[in-house]
Design a protein that fits this description.
Elements lengths: L6 H13 L4 E4 L10 H6 L4 E4 L5 E3 L4 E3 L5 E11 L11 E3 L5 E9 L20 E4 L7 E14 L4 E5 L20 E7 L2 E5 L9 E5 L5 E6 L2 E5 L4 E5 L5 E11 L17 E2 L2 E2 L5 E5 L5 E11 L6 E5 L5 E11 L6 E5 L5 E6 L2 E2 L3 E5 L5 E6 L2 E2 L3 E5 L9 E6 L2 E2 L3 E4 L2 E3 L1
Parallel strand pairs: 1-2, 2-5, 3-5, 4-6, 5-7, 6-8, 7-9, 8-10, 9-11, 9-12, 10-13, 11-14, 12-15, 13-16, 14-17, 15-17, 16-20, 17-21, 20-22, 21-23, 22-24, 23-25, 23-26, 24-27, 25-28, 26-29, 27-30, 28-31, 29-32, 30-33, 31-34
Antiparallel strand pairs: 18-19
Length: 420
Amino acid sequence: MLERLPGAVLALVLAPSIAVAGPFARVTNGDNDGAGSLRAALESGATKILIARSVDEIVVTETLEYTGTAPLTLFGTGQLIDGSGVEPNSEPVIAVTEGANLSITNLTVDAGGGNEFGPYNRLNQGGGKGIFIAVPEDRTGTVRLNMWNVTVMGTGNHGVHVSDCSLADDCGGGGGGGGDGSPASVAVRAIGVLIEDSGNGKQDADGLRVDERGDGNISFFAINSAFNDVGADGVELDEGNNGDVIINVSNSTFDFNGEYCVVGPFIPGDPCDDDGDPDVDDAFDVDEAGPGSVRGSVRNLTVINNFDEGLDFDEEDEGGFNVRITNVFAQNNADEGIKLSEEDDGNNRARLRGIIADGDLEFEEEDGGLLDIAISGSFVGDDMKLAADDGDPTTIDGFYKERNTIVIDERDFEGDIVEL
């Protein structure tokens, strides 16, 4: 069970937000609408909304929509927002439509996924998105989503979705997808967040998804969080134009993600048909498809029982990856425990320590850049794979340093890799 942050710690984290002045409203009942409701507070122009402790549950029958542009903060006190009555069931429970910054504390958002066959029916789970931020094309600066002690569950679509993409849900995943975006960056901060039983109603619906198709960066910070039982990727960050993906993820769990398309059979043209096999997904997937890099760190992660890769970081244009991966327990994932790849010119650096993986670790450079990989104090239960070959036998393609590490199978190197 995900451990919530102590109240004193949460108060310190929230202190800057509480100090900011702005119109205030108090929610005093759990009604769908009317005086004292959360919907009325959102429509009032208030930017600081507190849900009273006397409110146990808020039951809504249509999307809770915020159309303002000023930053919005929702202060919950442990309530459940029941979105099972939202129609049609593809709609989000909470939607910010004009790219405003959003901060949410101490709330559970349940989109009401499931149907008469049970909440875990992978073919037809109801429920739309949990939390959705739409970024307009003229947005500048940074769009910020901050979540503290938030649970999102029961979604057939993405659990949490920030979309800086003109194609909305047709933006696509992997390879940068398509569409245009704003000049703004997107920053997501998740502290004590649980996303579970989400994305189980359609193909490629993730637990937490960011689409960024303009010139900005994606920044993702998560601590003490869990992304479990998601139909597609537990977390997917898609940066499809100029800009970097910057990650800082620690003390978190990714368990049993990517299963949705396992349920068949698959017919030609079916979205789940991947050359006759189910199109499964990863625990934590990063795709950087324009000029830019993937950089940052992950540490103290449990990455288990996922249906494709554990950590899957890809850079597909000018740029590379520069990451530090520490104390990752990657077990029983269907494909590589950790895979980092770069498909154009770019230098790539990874430092790994304290990895325990029963599958392969794989690092690829498919064009003219260098690999620089070092691993220490680790256990690799299958192959250590490095692939970098620019076709020139006179040049070095990569460097590999290994200390106090056990590799059960092979050190499978392609290209001119120098072992230090």
